[in-house]
Amino acid sequence: MDRKTDMTEAATLSIAIVGSGGSGAVTTGKILLEGIARHGLYALMSRSSGPQIRGGESAVMLRIGQSSVDALDDDFDILLALDWLNVERFSDEIPVTEESLILHDPDKGDLPAVYAQMTHRHVARPLEQLAKSIENGRANMVGLGLLANLIGLPLAVVNAAAHDILKHKGEVVLQATLSCIETGYAQTPDETLVLPLSAPEAITERWNISGNEASGFGALQGGVRFVAAYPITPASEILEWLAPNLEQTGGSLLQAEDELASINMIIGASFGGVPSLTATSGPGLSLMMEGLGLAVASETPVVVANVMRGGPSTGIPTKSEQSDLNLALYGFHGDAPHIVLSALSIRDCAFTTQWAVKLTETLQAVAIVLTDQSLGQARAVIAPPRQPALEGKRKLAGDTDHYQRYALSDDAVSPMAIPGNAHCIYTADGLEHNEQGTPSAMATDHQQQLDKRRQKLTQFEYGDDWAEVTGDGEICLITWGSATGATREAAQRLSQAGLPTKTLAVRLLAPFSTERFKQVTAHAKQILVVEQNHGGQFFEYLNAQRVLPGHAHSLAQPGPLPLRPNVIYNRVMQGL
Amino acid sequence: MHGPPPEQLLKAKDYKSDVKPIWCAGCGHFAVLSAITKALAHLSLPPEQVALVSGIGCSSRLPAYTHVYGFHGIHGRALPIATGLKVARPDLTVLVTGGDGDGFSIGGNHFMHACRRNLDLTYIVMDNEVYGMTKGQASPTTDPGWEQSRLTPHGTGLPSFNPAAIALAAGAGFIARGFSGDPTSLTDLLIQGIQYPGFSFIHVLSPCVTYHPEQKAWKKTVHEQSQSTTADPVVAAQRIQQSDRMATGLIFKAISQVQQQQHPSKNISLEQISRQFVTHT
């Protein structure tokens, strides 16, 4: 692992586990992740699978570090292959180097050329044969034991993690698993590799969470108590996590007949005074746009968590891409000011979703939170999420006579009456209306209400959470959402290579913080805007805001392959 | 949140707003509005505990003309808005109004699933067999040979949609047909529908005097159904299929087996919920 120590950044270790569907690659990864967490380290685990329900290939990719891990590395140090089914479909996603170590079962066929040519460091062990010697034994757990020994994870820790992950499977499965892990652990390989990372002395509280779970938890923290749900990959896990947990808090979730229904259901529930959210992905968000316009016009607070995937159309449903930005920003008909936020990491999914709920409740507004498959369906070991300072309560109408639902005021947020309030009965409307709420086609009413709906968003003080700035230097990398992890890592490598580099990761995409953005980028000599889509949507958006100098460049790389730090690093090194 | 004292009897006018309807003189919807306010007064429902949700179209303008909480939403989506509201606020009495285009064409999928979901909602569809707001196009209930629309000058040629049959097939527990020309019976049907503890569908024949002047003749062709209400869906299906679709009354009322979304109220703290994520080091 010399290559790692060459890097002055914190050393990390990357492991890929591959196998056909049903081989247990994902379970192996989950146990390993939990073991790493228990050992006091951080990690990121992303999954790659085909669209098949069962029987396709699947792969998990872990990266382990002593501090928070927010991006996959350029290549993998260890590849554990349970078998080689459809290896050509994922080999692009799992690049190796001449120093990479490959663990495989010789009974599952020869090493594919793509890997055999690249590295000579192979460890062949009859994983399946060893598993067969144990009643109910499984090859993936033998592989797990072998892997754990290689990276120096104590056997007791792996066993405890396996117990945690598999306890619902019953005692028979658990005992077989522990025997397999032990058998694998005893298979000391020829190569001497030790975990290059030692556990920190003081271990603080750690969470093992997926981005979609974090979004769901953030929604609950924000106060959401009604959710309408229509299943879609890769967002369903937000809804599936919320279903039982929302019930625990006294809230309710309803499965809708389609996305047209789900968006309107949350509008209805929010009109009833209950903070509400739905989750979807690109095609579903397209269907929701008309409903979101209604929420803007009627000033009914709602949040849509949009977990992006490859598009357009059905696109690549199981793979990540940041290509719904244009839809989220510009998809509305009419002049419809709204909030667009992006989560910058798995941990940040909780913060940003919670902030979105609080902002929409405060401002009686619509928010779209953009995450993506690479955040939503990945798991990470994280420090507990931080929480926004904003109280986030709706301004409610009291017992005033002559109530005007859409009254004009300095902050442009008018008190909202909730059904049950006998003094302030009104009709919410998607038709343009006067202050009273009565439909109106008059120019003055339209102008006033357009101004009101814009001003309440633009006049609000969003504070320091609009973006995160890391590092410093005359090179500035500007990014958003899930691209933040790889971009920050590239900036660190550039800084260590003698090119001090700053990263600006924008969380609040709309309304846009023009002045703050200009302050951060004022002294940049070189600017590169990094994102994972084909059209450079964020770059175009920044140009529309007129905040980029003419020399700014765009690095836009579509999915399905993850955006890796070296792509960004090399682009800057080659002079942009 | 102060309702009127219980001894104070509410009148129909207490449920009316001072907004003047945009409807044409002679429109059937005036009588439906009146019947709704009479039904609410009869039930003495506090106006602040009632919500009236609608989509888009002439009849969907109705909420603004009432003095209860209202939501004038978007075309075809009244039922989902009402569904979310009712689940979030089961204490409210939620009524949904709209027209035949709104409910059976653009909102057709929601109609089926609202029947199926069987929440305690009352859905009042004012059917005049035409899109009035957009100036006279054929709707799903329009006669196939109607050639008065510029959009379909040769008629639609399509069999007209039978709302009661669809509601029954989709699982609605309360299916009635009313007529704006008989406001007393209509009020009675509305009262029963509001009281029914599941999804009640009230199909109201409500003439459009502008685009369907011939519907003025409904006064003569509409008649009371000859049989009494049935709780047997097989019998109801037969009657609905055999009927001339002009028979009014409560067609079908199932023994209510309402699937409410109510869960025993739990109040587990978020700190407790977060423990599922904490790893043991």
UniProtKB/TrEMBL annotation, chain B:
Q: List keywords of the entry alphabetically.
A: Oxidoreductase
The source's domain of life comes to Bacteria
Q: Report domain Thiamine pyrophosphate enzyme TPP-binding positions.
A: 56-204
GO MF annotations in UniProt: oxidoreductase activity, acting on the aldehyde or oxo group of donors, iron-sulfur protein as acceptor; thiamine pyrophosphate binding
Q: Which cofactor does it need?
A: [4Fe-4S] cluster
Please give the biological process terms from Gene Ontology that the record holds.
cellular respiration; small molecule metabolic process
InterPro entries xref list? 2-oxoacid:Fd_oxidoreductase (IPR051457), OFOB (IPR011896), THDP-binding (IPR029061), TPP_enzyme_TPP-bd (IPR011766)
NCBIfam families per UniProt: PorB_KorB (TIGR02177)
Protein name from the UniProt record: 2-oxoacid:ferredoxin oxidoreductase subunit beta
Species name for this entry? Sedimenticola selenatireducens
